[in-house]
Amino acid sequence: VYDSLVIRARESPGGDRILSVMTAEAGIVDLFVFGGPKSRLRSLASPFASGRAFVYLDPVKDFRKLSDFEARESFPALREDLGRLWSASLVAEILVRTSGGGGDYPAVLGLARDCLAGLDASPPERTAYPIVLFLWRFVALIGLGPEPGTCVSCGRGLGWSGESPGGPGAARSMTRERFSPAYSFVSEGFLCPRCAALDRSAGREGAAFGESEEPSRREDPPISLSLGALRWIETAGTRSFAEALKIALDPSSLEDLKALAFGLARRAADSPLASFSQGAIPV
Ligand SMILES: [Zn+2]
Fold it and tell me: Which of 44, 169, 209, 259 places its Cα 20 to 30 Å from the Cα of 228?
């Protein structure tokens, strides 16, 4: 018996259904479901249903067959909005790609359920919040989360309103990005305003002299973080998932955090994700 969340369904060449489920006990497990398209079990154990899976293990043929499913939650509103469904599919894809997060399965399962419940309850204009929070916590759970609050380059704090690198006179003409901290995918951590400015000007000089940059640098440039984004990072980690979802962000801070969370997700998966491959991202 597995405590489980169905994350994927596909058909075998023989017409049977194969489910991938995230379990608290064993991470990702593939299960055969026998019976026609209209069977009770098929409709109970469909993607994003959560509950207890009763499984028969055939020790000779070494396959697992789902014999019953006791659904506790099915998150029906996920299918009513493209942003919700896309986000739920990204959760599923990340879990499959990382083999269920690689170790702390009960925590990963709980986090995935929290995210789906948050998506299920979110109005369409707020579907980005649960997926950003999920990805942020997921990368921390699997040990790939950036150290918050500290500059990875000089070790200082990230004080947003710190002294601008060009001196007080220059600050007036500087745009927001010039004196805000940033996340660097190259350094895999946060940069304080001063180091972020040095990093940006080094990037520009490199480009001006025609030096070839690493491909990763071109794909994911440093992300400037607004005060709102920085505060979200500080507080989101100290609250329950449902409480952290209530922190409202201004549109530009939300865009910063989406870019950060999606960039971290790509790195956690260690290869391109299908969720990001087609057209516009609907959240
Ligand atoms: Zn620094």
Answer: 169
